[in-house]
Design brief:
The complex is a heterodimer of chains A (112) and B (113). By secondary structure, chain A is mostly beta strands. Chain A has strands spanning 4-7, 10-14, 19-25, 30-38, 45-51, 56-59, 62-67, 72-77, 86-94, 101-102, 106-111. Chain A starts with a strand and ends with a strand. By secondary structure, chain B is mainly β. Helix content of chain B is 0%, strand content 50%. In chain B, strands 2, 4, 5, 6, 9, 10 and 11 form a seven-stranded mixed β-sheet that branches. Chain B is globular, with a radius of gyration of 13 Å. Classes of the chains: A mainly beta (112), B mainly beta (113).
Chain lengths: 112, 113
Amino acid sequence: GENVEQHPSTLSVQEGDSAVIKCTYSDSASNYFPWYKQELGKRPQLIIDIRSNVGEKKDQRIAVTLNKTAKHFSLHITETQPEDSAVYFCAASLTGFQKLVFGTGTRLLVSP
Amino acid sequence: DGGITQSPKYLFRKEGQNVTLSCEQNLNHDAMYWYRQDPGQGLRLIYYSQIVNDFQKGDIAEGYSVSREKKESFPLTVTSAQKNPTAFYLCASSIEGSYYEQFFGPGTRLTVL
């Protein structure tokens, strides 16, 4: 089955810096890659997603890139703010399936 | 934050007891899911259901059971066969299909005493 690895597990940056979180997946048939943000004590929420027919997608300060050949995708956050502090999860799924396989999460801490 | 609810927020159980966690959604979503969240392990899929009266095992189904008698409801029973049930349980729902956002409930924290 699909396996998703996520790095780093913890990331500390200064406010205004950029943050990058990387994920790799094992099943080349996976074609949908969402990113969820979970603030402390709250439920996970989708922040951005990408499909395999697209190499990059951007939404204001966040962007996701996908390298299908290498089977990895990354979340980029620019101009980080303290409210970006949270746990971020990447995930992957196969066409026609409902299952999302999640990475183990990255705890991002943005210091003022 | 409305749309998908879970109850109770906190649940305490004695060893050897079964316990049922509630999940209800009013989003008219066909698909519903149960995940377990442990520190450092991300979200792991327990069961999912794509339609009423049908459900599939996820990656860690042992010791758990579910039912899907109504579109709006997907209760999870943690049985005494689950060896390490203390965890945070999240329910989610989505439109049926591969590319749709999963909406999560607020979660239930289960502690076995």
